[in-house]
Amino acid sequence: MTAMADLSPKHFKWRMEDSVAVIQLDRPERKNPLTFESYAELRDTFRNLVYAEDINAVVFASNGGNFCSGGDVHEIIGPLVGMDMKELLAFTRMTGDLVKAMLNCGKPIISAVDGVCVGAGAIITMASDLRLATPDAKTAFLFTRVGLAGCDMGACAILPRIIGQGRAADLLYTGRSMSAKEGHDWGYFNALHPAEELEEQALVLAKRIASGPTFANGITKTQLNHEWNMSPDQAIEAEAQAQAICMQTRDFERAYHAFVAKKKPVFEGN
Questions:
Q1: Selecting from 3.40.50.720, 3.90.226.10, 3.20.20.70, 3.40.50.300, what CATH number does the domain 12-210 have?
Q2: In degrees rounded to 5, what are phi and psi of residue 193?
Q3: pLDDT per residue over 38-65, tens digit each?
Q4: Are 87 and 156 in contact, with CB atoms under 8 Å apart?
Q5: Per the confidence metrics, is the pTM higher than 0.90?
Q6: Do 139 and 125 form a contact (C-beta atoms < 8 A)?
């Protein structure tokens, strides 16, 4: 297994709050756009989280009043115009691999969204497990506004699962901005908080989850992602097997003994 507390990425900010990793894009003067390099480094970081015993949850936070303005116009969009099909496909597969890495990292991810959250930034929030926002957050899957399809990085598969087919179609066809209130009303955002409390509230939620049975949390994340592709019978059988595995953990035993002793269980992730 890997310890990642001392990770020093080159293209985004990283810090630890107990067993919670906090990630922030670090170009606030441009509303935190992504580059080829930050895409790749984020992908590799989330891939490695699978093996990180020292991290139990992740907060993807805003920086400087904004979450992410999507792909950098000059450093990504411009070069893409001059690429051939092979190069373009390598890029779109790489961006999709970031979403796959987030879905398969085994750690609950909470996005804390303030200000601008568009394009690939909106996709990062979509690929998170939970989403908090400020009342001023503006989220847009704006791919059609730059002449592209709405089906980017898994949006047509994942977004309808969160907010429904019709609402997803609205956002993906028009590229319009979804207000924080709409997002909350539709179930996209789990809660809204004032800007000065957003990151703190995300950390409170992340630490609450991280203090739970972390091995079992990883199972929950896996099943939430996999069961969309299963029939009810298949899902019930998969959950039976998953729960039987969790019943062999020491955390399950700890919870039982704590209940008998009328104490709060202290989980250790094994």
A1: 3.90.226.10
A2: -135, 150
A3: 999 999 999 999 999 999 999 999 999 9
A4: no
A5: yes
A6: yes
